[in-house]
Amino acid sequence: MKNIFEAVREAVPVPLAAERYGLKANHAGMVCCPFHDDRKPSLKLNEDYFYCFGCGAGGDVVELTRRLFDLRPYEAASKLAVDFGVDVPATAPPDGSLNRFRSDLLRCQQVLDEYLNLLIRWQRKYAPRSQDDKPDDRYVEACQMLEPMDYMASMLAAGTLEQRIRAVDRLLADGKMDQLEDRLNRIKEQELKEEN
Ligand SMILES: [Zn+2]
């Protein structure tokens, strides 16, 4: 099941949101960056992410909205859903006992933490160095996933019991956590090999 971040990201291209929120793009899809004192357009709008070659600001459509309106990630996603009429899926009802929930919660927190650390590393390491660079897939993934994952992690850490149960349910749905854990292990092995 899609969450609100996935839903708005799929439905709202970055250039559309930028235009709606008052950023005027030139023929090359560049706008004057609203996040630093920008005289000539240095922020590039791509379909699913933006990147400023002046100040390094970058991210997906939620991040753009979050920064423009100084919102929390979840509020930015909600604003996009409202402004663009995106259907936001309801979350699955909680089930399972409390003990089971506690061990699931711990596991989700550990896997998410590891993934977040990886994304932060990727965003720095693989950021495009010039306008002509085709962005590295790892950089794009970091831009797209950092906010929703960070939101999930804060929900797990500080949400109400009901919010935490819902977040764990969502993370465990369709074997998502298993797949992510497998993938993280493979990446770790690969990186170790490359270091040696
Ligand atoms: Zn900038």
Characterise the protein shown here:
With 196 residues, the protein is mainly alpha-helical. It folds into two domains: 80 residues, DNA Primase, Chain A (Alpha-Beta Complex); 98 residues. It contains eight helices and four strands. It has a four-stranded antiparallel beta sheet with strand order 1-2-3-4, sandwiched between helices. Helix 1 packs across helix 4, helix 5 runs antiparallel to helix 6 and helix 5 crosses helix 7. About 3% of the residues have low confidence. It binds zinc ion. The site of zinc ion has 9 residues, from loops.
What Rg is obtained from the alpha carbons, in whole angstroms? Answer: 18 Å
Helix content: 55-70%
What amount of the residues lies in strands?
5-15%
Query: What is the overall pLDDT average?
Result: 88
Largest sheet: 4 strands, antiparallel
H/E series, N to C?
A: HHEEEEHHHHHH
- The counted number of beta strands is 4
Query: Structural class of the secondary structure composition?
Result: mainly alpha
Distance between the termini: 40 Å
Low-confidence stretches: 92-96
**Number of domains in the coordinates?**
2
Widest sheet: strand ordering: 1-2-3-4
- Ligand species: zinc ion
